[in-house]
Write a structure and sequence with these properties.
heterodimer; A: alpha/beta; Rossmann fold; 5 strands; 10% strand; B: alpha+beta; four-stranded mixed sheet; 13 helices; 14 strands
Chain lengths: 249, 434
């Protein structure tokens, strides 16, 4: 069996998802027995444009980034959004409520800027530009989910990701419900796969893995009534990670 | 001897973020030499406006995956300063452990995975598996895993911490977990000292380059300053108040490039492990002092390539310091404390910490409802960009006798020595094409 050739690329983001790959430690060496990593700029100098699978980390901000992304799509047989920035836009899309000119002025002041250098448009998830085959959600991604994903791809199988809410995993961990502790948790409407890591550390879910395609809206209504919450708070909570166009996909 | 060369390193590898190096030499004269940052800007300060103070930490942690604990702590300190929240002694101790864990994780990643391949003539750490350096690789992985495990234990997660919130922690480790961690740290010390010896054996691969500059960092009367301290310059001494940080970090715009740089007493300054070492080396713990001696580091050190070696010294200091912090926690508790809450009020707060790459400032203004109206973050790498450029200008004339390939590698090594975190810096450092 030939090993699939894997490339990892990054755009506008914190590179924390790539770091989760480095953080696999010895297990990364194990993964290298079933895949060949041919490009991974953050940790290696070598680069090849000959690859089967491309992982894309980061949101897209500028025309030159869109062009680079289309070029990668042209090379890759399978393309995967790696983490929230690529999958949904993550916190990057928070700035889309202002125009690029307004945010430039806020950050850089009134100094005249070279527009060629600052040609940012709205922050975008990658599927606003190219077709995406699979999504690895989360900010950051879960290392175990990444391993399972890569293993499935190397075996020529379709990787599976959960379609149920974080609450399922939270119950498995036998956590006390965050609502009972007085916190506004997004677990009921957020897709699982993180092992409910935030509630397990006694912190409400912030929804970083994206809102489920069909959330149980009755459940949300019930929670809002039962715990005397406001939809304004719900909106505030949801928009930390889910202000982008693609966030509710 | 290189008399004509065009070097363009596009998207420099083994650094966090996207940067380019351009060098043009004609008839032995440097026509152009630039360190350029080509990462897309992300505008964090603009989009945190309107957000509730409880969300600021969650959002600004996402500036950087490698130093997310540092950003979280600067953010929390700024928020708590604005709301006049006084955190408990236990929270301070736990935060010191968190900052040690991140410093260790980031430093060993840089030393082992990003910088070492240059010293061992490989393109990445991957070929070291199965080579004669296999044992060193395993030791580095072991230290990296321990550092991440420590972050997980204190913060809930190593990248984008969960337990760190305004006023305290949502959960804390048990005494048993802390005792085990202390044992693991004790066992890791000899491993770290072995890695230091390996590094020392490779030290002659570093260019013998000296350029005196200004070094800025925190100083503290009783400890090697990381979590707390007074902003201090090697040229002008301590500031009167950290609130005046802008008098020490003067931003300016390079007319031809639009890129913002920072300077103070000279054309540029240095922040990070080497700056901290130059300011505070006498406060290092004993094994860290010994390691500095092994590397023949005596403050002030003016060779920027030795920043990686100063990181190794700090790594060992962090291992020693963490054991003291754990002892403190075990003597007094740890107690189950709820995070301290506050009533929202209008105000401004400033949080300053030392993170792996240097001094970091978050500065927030909140309105009466606790919503952010103004934010400013000053990032270590941003402060170093000017110094990288000046180092390059001083370095290149001294290495023109080398081949084009070696000049390119030396320039790459110089940038890597600063361990730049470009994603961090691009919320206001910008594209800068020749």
């Amino acid at each position: 069996m030939t090993k699939p050739r894997v490339a990892i690329f990054d755009f506008a983001d914190c590179e924390g998802c790539e770091l989760q790959i480095a953080n696999l430690e010895e297990e990364l060496l194990d993964l290298l027995s079933i895949i060949d990593i041919v490009s991974f700029r953050e940790v290696m100098k070598e680069h090849s444009d000959d690859y089967d699978i491309a992982f894309i980390e980061g949101s897209i901000m500028r025309p030159q980034d869109e062009e680079r992304l289309r070029n990668i799509r042209g090379h890759a047989k399978i393309l995967i959004a790696l983490g929230a920035c690529a999958a949904t836009g993550c916190v990057n899309t928070l700035r889309n409520q202002w125009t690029p000119d307004e945010v430039k002025k806020e950050v850089y002041g009134t100094t005249k800027l070279n527009e060629q250098l600052f040609n940012v448009g709205p922050a975008k998830a990658i599927n606003e530009i190219i077709p995406v085959d699979y999504y690895l959600h989360g900010c950051p991604i879960d290392r175990d989910e990444f391993k399972a994903f890569v293993t499935a791809l190397a075996l020529g199988k379709k990787p599976e990701t959960p379609t149920y809410p974080v609450c399922v995993e939270c119950k498995k961990n036998e956590n006390i419900c965050q609502f009972e502790l007085g916190n506004f948790c997004l677990g009921p409407i957020t897709r699982a796969g993180c092992k409910a890591i935030c509630p397990t550390h006694n912190s409400p879910c912030d929804g970083c893995r994206g809102i489920l395609k069909k959330p149980e809206t009755d459940c949300v209504k019930d929670l809002v009534t039962r715990y005397d919450l406001t939809y304004e708070d719900l909106k505030r909570r949801c928009t930390i990670f889910n202000s982008g166009k693609e966030a509710c996909q | 001897m290189t008399t004509d060369a065009h070097i363009h390193v596009h998207h420099l590898t083994r650094v966090e973020g996207h940067g380019d190096i351009t060098l043009d030499i004609k008839a032995g004269k440097i026509q152009q030499l630039q360190w350029q940052v080509v990462e897309a800007p992300r505008f964090f300060e603009a989009f945190v406006r309107g957000r509730h103070y409880n969300d600021l930490r969650t959002i600004t942690s996402r500036i950087c995956g490698i130093c997310s604990i540092g950003h979280s702590l600067a953010s929390l300190k700024a928020t708590e300063d604005a709301l006049n929240i006084k955190i408990s002694e236990q929270t301070q101790t736990l935060r010191r452990l968190a900052i040690n864990a991140e410093n260790m994780q980031s430093h060993i990643l840089h030393i082992g995975y990003l910088a070492a391949p240059d010293l061992l003539n490989t393109g990445s750490v991957i070929p070291l598996a199965g080579s004669k350096h296999h044992d060193t690789l395993l030791k580095i992985i072991q230290l990296h895993r321990l550092s991440n495990h420590m972050s997980d234990l204190i913060c809930g997660r190593t990248t984008h911490p969960i337990r760190l919130v305004v006023g305290g922690f949502t959960a804390i480790p048990t005494p048993k977990q802390l005792t085990t961690l202390k044992e693991n740290l004790q066992q890791a010390l000899p491993t770290a000292l072995d890695v230091a010896t390996t590094l020392q054996n490779l030290q002659d691969k570093l260019p013998d380059f000296q350029r005196e500059t200004e070094y800025i960092g925190l100083t503290h009367p009783t400890e090697y300053a990381l979590y707390d301290g007074t902003m201090t310059s090697t040229d002008t001494g301590p500031t009167t108040e950290n609130k005046n940080y802008q008098s020490l970090m003067k931003e300016y715009i390079v007319p031809q490039s639009t890129a913002k740089y920072a300077k103070h007493a000279r054309a540029s300054y240095f922040v990070g492990a080497l700056a901290r070492f130059n300011l505070n080396s006498t406060q290092l713990h004993p094994h860290a002092q010994d390691t500095a001696e092994l590397f023949d580091l005596k403050a002030p050190v003016y060779n920027p390539f030795l920043n990686t070696y100063a990181q190794m010294v700090e790594f060992i200091h962090n291992i020693e310091d963490s054991q003291h912090q754990i002892d403190r926690l075990l003597t007094k508790g740890p107690k189950d404390e709820k995070p301290i809450t506050a009533t929202p009020k209008a105000g401004r707060g400033i949080g300053i910490v030392e993170v792996p790459r240097g001094i970091l400032v978050h500065d927030y203004t909140l309105d009466k409802n606790g919503l952010c109206t103004k934010a400013n973050c000053i990032i270590p790498t941003n402060q170093n960009h000017g110094n990288i450029q000046h180092d390059m200008e001083a370095l290149v004339p001294t290495i023109l006798h080398k081949s084009e390939k070696d000049i390119e590698l030396t320039l790459e090594m110089l940038v890597r020595a600063y361990d730049p975190c470009i994603s961090c810096s691009t919320h206001y450092l910008t594209v800068h094409f020749a």
